[in-house]
Amino acid sequence: MKKIVFAFVITVFAGFVLGQKTKGRLSYDVFISSDDPQTSAYVDNMQGSILELYFGEGKVRTEMYMGDFMSTTSVSVEGNDTTLTLLDGPMGKIAMKTTLDDLEDEQRLAYTERDVELVDGETKEIMGYTCKKAIITTADENEAVVWYTEEMVPEYRGGMYLYDEIPGVPLEMTSTWGKMDMKFVAFDYSKKLKKPEDLFSMKVPKGFTLRTAEEMKQMRGGGGN
Length: 225
Prior knowledge:
CATH topology: outer membrane lipoprotein receptor (LolB), chain A
Strand order of the largest sheet: 7-8-9-10-11-1-2-3-4-5-6-12
CATH architecture: Clam
CATH class: Mainly Beta
Structural class: alpha+beta
Number of domains: 1
Largest sheet: 12 strands, mixed
CATH superfamily: Lipoprotein localisation LolA/LolB/LppX
């Protein structure tokens, strides 16, 4: 009898693990608001924003389309400390290859020093998936609330939206970015990744100019006297 029970438990566990989605694309609606009058004018240009999150094969790609204002793409690979970032907006088409050392102190702390609390007993359904709650608190005391599903577990969880400490993929995220309140809500999932070799490529695409982090600071007016 014990052998039968043990076999049943192993079968159920194996079915759960094999049923997990380890690669695919998630699409999110992005809702942005602000109580600050000056920021509100900027927010108006970001209505209709969308986030695309691709994951698989130890790689992650994000594409953030901020209304008609600009788009930001990032690609990171497990075991590679360099992230490729592509900006397409008012400053033109710019590419950067950065590490944690290139980030400003505030940004670096947000990545490296954070507290993640997995909340017990709270769940909600998003896109038909049962999601659990997590609260992320960064070193500067900014807080983000994440609702994640354990039915999607990428092999590599890194970048801005996937966390090693969270055993799954966020389907809803709420956070504050400067004077803006942001909410990401997933609305579509596809398990197919078209041309992953191109999707996760670290090569700078044609038409983009490679800039260093220091050059970007100077272009924003932060590097001159």
